[in-house]
Amino acid sequence: MPVAKRIEQLQKEFLQQCTEYETKVVNAQFLYNERVEKDSVKFDSGILSLLVEYSFFRVFLSWEYYLEQTFISYSLGEEGANGKRVPVYVLPRDFDHAYSLIQGTSQFPDWTNSEKILKLADNFFENGGPYQKIMGLRRNLQDIKTIRNALAH
Fold this sequence. Notes:
Blueprint: H1 7-33, E1 37-38, E2 41-42, H2 45-75, H3 95-103, H4 114-124, H5 138-152
Antiparallel strand pairs: 1-2
């Protein structure tokens, strides 16, 4: 059975993945700018675009994973990075039960919709817990979701 991760560990993993993919994009941009060629294969704009799109998609998936795992961890009473617990309105038995509560009647939780995230946060945590900060990011998250959908479809 999966167990909740510490919030600090989840933050560290998310930031590491962001840095990893940012580095990949920077390296790809360098190869493109240097017009690297090997055995008549050029590192062209098409290859650059694929790497940038892939990196964007991977960071987006990391963001979704981060939200899901922090929701579960906070609902199971894990302390935040500040050492404090978020007051919760739900009492899941374990990791799987917490995931089931988050999932609701959907096949998968929707971490792409800021309104749904905020509603879920309000239902789970006092004053929406740390997820109220998402309110200031709604437009950005919508833009990111639009880009993600364009890449995926």
